[in-house]
Structure to design on (982 residues):
C-alpha cells in the first residue's frame, strides 16, 4: 500500500473548506488539539495530531473526504479499549472519536431488532434492551466502555460465543463512511435480507481499516427468565474435552461453556495487591513428541448414557488470593437458561459433584470470565494476550502447545476458552524472576503457531510495545492475502485508515 | 466454435453442450427470466474451473455458474451469450468430519443429500430451502439461501466457514477453512450471497448442526388472516422462539390442500405451521405458552403432529406449495420481500389491495417468523397486459416492504429480476461502494455480468438489457 509523503494536519487551520468537494465546510466540527487530551488518546505511544468528535455521519464523511484529499491518517476510536491491538501506527493525524454517535436509531421490541450509533457503549445498549426484557447476546470485556463500532471493528467476543456465535451472527446492517468520504451501508433493519453485498461481514473484524462505522443494527433475543451455572472440576484438559464431547452429543443446550486452566483461575477473582509471579505454576503438561494434536479431542464414542468420569472435586471454585494456588484442577463453567425443570434435568444428568452457582455468585464469575483479558493486563502490564481459533479436535492440544511455547520463552500460559467453538484466550505471563526479552514474545508466538493444525489462527491482541518490533502480530491468515489487499485497495486506496496496524 | 473446442479440450468432449436444442434447457431457472447461453460446460475438477475462467477472461466472454437452476431471481441465467458452468459433475461429499462438526463438499452436492448423509450421525445441514431436494450447496452459497428453519439456525452464511474459490483470473484461492473467522477480513462471509459475481466456489466447508432432542410441530388454524398475523407478533413479543413459523393464507392453503392432502382445513382463513425444537422440557413449556397465545388471539384449533409421519405431512404442504400453485396457473411470480415482523398485518392488507388494484390473484405463503413474505402472483405469460400488471404489482409490494423498513429480498437474491429495485434500498454511494468491492474480485465483470447491481446508471457497468420485462418472453412494445 503506497503511503504518500504528506504533512500532518495544520492544527490551527483544520476547520477549513475542502477544495476537493467545494462547499464542504468543517468549521462547526469540534477539533481538540490540547496536548493532555491528545496524549490521553495516544495509540501505542503515538499521540494523535488532533482529536475530533463528529456529531453525525455527515461530519464523519466530511472529515474523511478531507483526510483522503490530504493523505491524513485517521484512526477511529470508540471506548479506546482495544487500541493496543495491531501494529504501532505509523502516525495518527486525526483521532476520530465516535462517542457522540451514540443514539438509538431504531428499536422495535416487538420485532427484536435495534440499531445504535457506533459510539454507544454495549452497557448502554443492553440497558435499553433490558427495559423490554431483551438483550444482545454479545459479551466482550469491558462493556461499560466497549462501543458498537469498536466491537464490530475488533470482532471482540466473550463467553456467549459458545452458543450464539459472535457479532457476525447478530449484525443485520451497518452504516459506515469509506476512506473516500462516501457514506455507505449494507444490510438493513430486518432479520433476513440478501439484498446487495454483505458489507457487515467486511466491517466486522477489519479493525477500522476499511471504513469508519457510524451505526449498526442487530437482531436481539429475549432475556432468559433465569439462569444457573454449573461448575465441574477436572484433572486434565483431556478430561475436559471428554466431558465437552459427551455434552455436545447429549440433548442438553447451554448458553456458555467455558473451560478454565489452573493458572487462569487466579484471574477470575480479586487480588489484594499487584504481584509478580515467582515461579511458573504447573499445569501437568509434558512435552510429548508423539502427540497428535488434530486427533486428540476426537469423540471416542457416541455413548451418551453417562458423563465421563469428571469431578475429583475440590470444594472451592476460587483460589485463595495472594498466593499462587496449588490447586491444579481445570474448571468448566456451564451456564444454562430455562425453567426449574431444565435445571433439574441438568442436575440429574451432570455428575453429582458439580457445584451450582446462582444469583450474585453466578453474575460475579461470568463478569470475571468476560473481563479475563483485562484482569490479566491489570496485574501484568507485560503480559501477552492471544486470541486463538482452532478445530474442536485440537483444543486440549492447543492448551498444551500454549503452555509449552510459553515455558520455553520464560512465560507461563494462563488460558480460558469457549471450547465448544474452538475459541481460546491465552495469556502468556512473564515469569518475574527471569522475564522474557522482547524477542521472546515473537519466539513464543512462532512456536505456538507452528504447533497448531491447519486452518487455525493465533493473533496477538495485546503485548508490550517493546515486543512489537519485527513481530507478526496477526499470524498467517487462512484467507488469501492478495484478495484481502485488493479489498483494502478498493475501499481505502490511499491507506489512510489505521495505516500500519493491520495485516494489509 | 473455437470456444467450444477449447472448452472440450479442457473438460472433455462429452462435457460441453452447444447445440441450440441443448442450450434451450439452460435458458431459464425457476423464476421468470430467460437467456440463452453460448455453451454449457461441466467441469469435474477445480483445475477445470480455473482453466475455463482463464480462457473466458482472455477471450472476453462472460461466465455464469449454475447449480440446479432452482433459483428464482435469474442468478444462474446467461446474459450476453455467456458460458454457463454447470456443477453436476462436481457433486461429491468430500468429508464429513463429525468430531469437528464440519462437512467439506463440492458445489454440486444437493442440499438434502448432505443432510441425509449427516443424519445417520445425528447432524444436519441447517439451511433448508423449499427446493432442498434439488438445489445445490454451491447455489445456496451463491444466494445465501434460507428456508423455514433458518429462523432458529440462521441462513447459509451462518453455516459456511471455508471456501475454495476460483477468481475470474483463474486463480484458485482459499477463503477461510474449517475453523471459524480467524485473523484477517471475513471474506468467507462476504462471499456468501454474492450471487456468483465475485468468484466460483469449487469447494465448501460447512458447519454440521446437531439434530434437536425434541421437535414439536403444530398447525394453528384461523378464521382470519389478521388473527394469524397477530399471533406471529404476539409470539415474538412473548419471547417464544420457534425454529420455524410459517404462514399460509386461505387461498394458498386450499390450493395446497387440493394438491398434497396435508390436512389443512379447506374452510379456514389462514394457518400457521409452527415448530419448536430443543430440550424436551423447553419444548413442552413453550408448547403450553404457544397454545395460550394462539387461543387467546383466536385460533379456532391447534393441532400437534403426533409422530414423524404427521409432521412430514404438515410440512409436505408447505414445502410443495409452489408446485401446487403450478396446477392452478400457467405462471406465477413469487416475491421475496421482508418486513419487520410487527408490520405483517398491515402488509397483508396492502397486498390484498394490490391484488384488487391490478385485478390479480395473489396468494401468501411465507416465513412469518422472520417477516419474509412470498406473495405469489398468478398470471399467464401469454397475456402481455396481465404480465405487465403482474410486474407492476410485484414492484408495488416490494416498494411497500422497503417503506416499512424492510428489504426487497430475504433469501432469493437480487439476480437480474430485482437489480433495478436495488435503488429502493440503497443510495448511489451505497451501490458505488458495493461496485468497487465487486471490482476488486471481478474487475471486468467477466463473472455473472449485469446481476445484483443496477445497470441504469451508465457509469457502473456496461449496459445490457435492463428493461424489467427483458427475458420474460414479452414483446418489447408492451
Amino acid at each position: 500500500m503506497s503511503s504518500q509523503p504528506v504533512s500532518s494536519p495544520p492544527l490551527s487551520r483544520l476547520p477549513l473548506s475542502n477544495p476537493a468537494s467545494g462547499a464542504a465546510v468543517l468549521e462547526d466540527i469540534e477539533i481538540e488539539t490540547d496536548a493532555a487530551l491528545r496524549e490521553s488518546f495516544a495509540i501505542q505511544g503515538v499521540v494523535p495530531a488532533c482529536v475530533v468528535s463528529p456529531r453525525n455521519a455527515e461530519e464523519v464523511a466530511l472529515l474523511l473526504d478531507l483526510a483522503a484529499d490530504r493523505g491524513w491518517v485517521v484512526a477511529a476510536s470508540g471506548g479506546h479499549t482495544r487500541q493496543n491491538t495491531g501494529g504501532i501506527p505509523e502516525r495518527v493525524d486525526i483521532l476520530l472519536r465516535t462517542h457522540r454517535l451514540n443514539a438509538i436509531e431504531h428499536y422495535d421490541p416487538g420485532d427484536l431488532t435495534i440499531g445504535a450509533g457506533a459510539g454507544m457503549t454495549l452497557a448502554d445498549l443492553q440497558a435499553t434492551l433490558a427495559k423490554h426484557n431483551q438483550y444482545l447476546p454479545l459479551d466482550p470485556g469491558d462493556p461499560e466502555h466497549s462501543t458498537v463500532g469498536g466491537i464490530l471493528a475488533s470482532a471482540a467476543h466473550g463467553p456467549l460465543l459458545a452458543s450464539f456465535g459472535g457479532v457476525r451472527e447478530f449484525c443485520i446492517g451497518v452504516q459506515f463512511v469509506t476512506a473516500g468520504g462516501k457514506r455507505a451501508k449494507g444490510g438493513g433493519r430486518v432479520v433476513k435480507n440478501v439484498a446487495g453485498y454483505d458489507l457487515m461481514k467486511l466491517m466486522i473484524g477489519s479493525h477500522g481499516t476499511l471504513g469508519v462505522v457510524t451505526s449498526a443494527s442487530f437482531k436481539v433475543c429475549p432475556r432468559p427468565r433465569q439462569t444457573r451455572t454449573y461448575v465441574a472440576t477436572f484433572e486434565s484438559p483431556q478430561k475436559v474435552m471428554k466431558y465437552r464431547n459427551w455434552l455436545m452429543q447429549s440433548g442438553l443446550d447451554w448458553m456458555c461453556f467455558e473451560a478454565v486452566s489452573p493458572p487462569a483461575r487466579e484471574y477470575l477473582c480479586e487480588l489484594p495487591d499487584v504481584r509478580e509471579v515467582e515461579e511458573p505454576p504447573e499445569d501437568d503438561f509434558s512435552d510429548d513428541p508423539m502427540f497428535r494434536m488434530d486427533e486428540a479431542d476426537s469423540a471416542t464414542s457416541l455413548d451418551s448414557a453417562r458423563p465421563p468420569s469428571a469431578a475429583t472435586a475440590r470444594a472451592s471454585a476460587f483460589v485463595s488470593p495472594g498466593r499462587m494456588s496449588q490447586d491444579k484442577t481445570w474448571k468448566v463453567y456451564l451456564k444454562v437458561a430455562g425453567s426449574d425443570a431444565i435445571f433439574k434435568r441438568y442436575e440429574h444428568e451432570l455428575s453429582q459433584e458439580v457445584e451450582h452457582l446462582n444469583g450474585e455468585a453466578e453474575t460475579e464469575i461470568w463478569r470475571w470470565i468476560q473481563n479475563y483479558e483485562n484482569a490479566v493486563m491489570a496485574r501484568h502490564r507485560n503480559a501477552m494476550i492471544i486470541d486463538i481459533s482452532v478445530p474442536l479436535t485440537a483444543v486440549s492440544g492447543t492448551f498444551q502447545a500454549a503452555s509449552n511455547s510459553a515455558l520455553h520463552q520464560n512465560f507461563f500460559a494462563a488460558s480460558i476458552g469457549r471450547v465448544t467453538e474452538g475459541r481460546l484466550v491465552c495469556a502468556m505471563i512473564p515469569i518475574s524472576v527471569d522475564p522474557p526479552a522482547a524477542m521472546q514474545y515473537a519466539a513464543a508466538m512462532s512456536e505456538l503457531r507452528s504447533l497448531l493444525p491447519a486452518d487455525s489462527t493465533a493473533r496477538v491482541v495485546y503485548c508490550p510495545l517493546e515486543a512489537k518490533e519485527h513481530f507478526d502480530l496477526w499470524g498467517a491468515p487462512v484467507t488469501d492475502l492478495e484478495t484481502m489487499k485488493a479489498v483494502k485497495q478498493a475501499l481505502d486506496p490511499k491507506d489512510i485508515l489505521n495505516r500500519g496496524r493491520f495485516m494489509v | 466454435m473455437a470456444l467450444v473446442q477449447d472448452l472440450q479440450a479442457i473438460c472433455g468432449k462429452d462435457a460441453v453442450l452447444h447445440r441450440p436444442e441443448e442450450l434451450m434447457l439452460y435458458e431459464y431457472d425457476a423464476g421468470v427470466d430467460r437467456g440463452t447461453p453460448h455453451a454449457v460446460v461441466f467441469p469435474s475438477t477445480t483445475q477445470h474451473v480455473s482453466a475455463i475462467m482463464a480462457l473466458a477472461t482472455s477471450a472476453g466472454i462472460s461466465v455464469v455458474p449454475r447449480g440446479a437452476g432452482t433459483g428464482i431471481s435469474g442468478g444462474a441465467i446467461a446474459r450476453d451469450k455467456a458460458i454457463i458452468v454447470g456443477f453436476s459433475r462436481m457433486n461429491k461429499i468430500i468429508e464429513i468430519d463429525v468430531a469437528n462438526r464440519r462437512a467439506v463438499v463440492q458445489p454440486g452436492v444437493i442440499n438434502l443429500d448432505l443432510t441425509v448423509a449427516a443424519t445417520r450421525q445425528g447432524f444436519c445441514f441447517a439451511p433448508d430451502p423449499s427446493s432442498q431436494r434439488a438445489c445445490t450447496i454451491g447455489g445456496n452459497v451463491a444466494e445465501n439461501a434460507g428456508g423455514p428453519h433458518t429462523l432458529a439456525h440462521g441462513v447459509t452464511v451462518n453455516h459456511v466457514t471455508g471456501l475454495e474459490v476460483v477468481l475470474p483470473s483463474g486463480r484458485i484461492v482459499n477463503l477461510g477453512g474449517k475453523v471459524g473467522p480467524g485473523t484477517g477480513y471475513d471474506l468467507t462471509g462476504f462471499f456468501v450471497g454474492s450471487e456468483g459475481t465475485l468468484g466460483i466456489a469449487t469447494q465448501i466447508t460447512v458447519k454440521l448442526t446437531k439434530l434437536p432432542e425434541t421437535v414439536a410441530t403444530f398447525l394453528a388454524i384461523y378464521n382470519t388472516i389478521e388473527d394469524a398475523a397477530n399471533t406471529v407478533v404476539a409470539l415474538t413479543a412473548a419471547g417464544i422462539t420457534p425454529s420455524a413459523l410459517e404462514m399460509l393464507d386461505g387461498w394458498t392453503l386450499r390450493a395446497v390442500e387440493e394438491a398434497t392432502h396435508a390436512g389443512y382445513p379447506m374452510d379456514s382463513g389462514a394457518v400457521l405451521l409452527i415448530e419448536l425444537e430443543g430440550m424436551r422440557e423447553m419444548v413442552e413449556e413453550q408448547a403450553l405458552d404457544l397454545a395460550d397465545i394462539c387461543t387467546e388471539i383466536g385460533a379456532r384449533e391447534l393441532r400437534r403432529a403426533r409422530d414423524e409421519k404427521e409432521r412430514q405431512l404438515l410440512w409436505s404442504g408447505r414445502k410443495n406449495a409452489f408446485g401446487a400453485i403450478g396446477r392452478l396457473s400457467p405462471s406465477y411470480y413469487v416475491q421475496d420481500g421482508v418486513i419487520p415482523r410487527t408490520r405483517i398485518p398491515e402488509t397483508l392488507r396492502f397486498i390484498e389491495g394490490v391484488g384488487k388494484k391490478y385485478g390479480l390473484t395473489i396468494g401468501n405463503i411465507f416465513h412469518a417468523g422472520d417477516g419474509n413474505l412470498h406473495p405469489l402472483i398468478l398470471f399467464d405469460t401469454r397475456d402481455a397486459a396481465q404480465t405487465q400488471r403482474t410486474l407492476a404489482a410485484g414492484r408495488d409490494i416490494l416498494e411497500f416492504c422497503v417503506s416499512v423498513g424492510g428489504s426487497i429480498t430475504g433469501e432469493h437474491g437480487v439476480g437480474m429480476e430485482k437489480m433495478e429495485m436495488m435503488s429502493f434500498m440503497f443510495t448511489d454511494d451505497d451501490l458505488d461502494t458495493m461496485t468497487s468491492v465487486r471490482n476488486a474480485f471481478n474487475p471486468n465483470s467477466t463473472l455473472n455480468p449485469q446481476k445484483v447491481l443496477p445497470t441504469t446508471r451508465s457509469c457502473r457497468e456496461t449496459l445490457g438489457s435492463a428493461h424489467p420485462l427483458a427475458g420474460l418472453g414479452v414483446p418489447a412494445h408492451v
In short: The CA atoms of residues 44 and 88 of chain A lie 6 Å apart. The first strand of chain A starts at residue 31 and ends at 32.
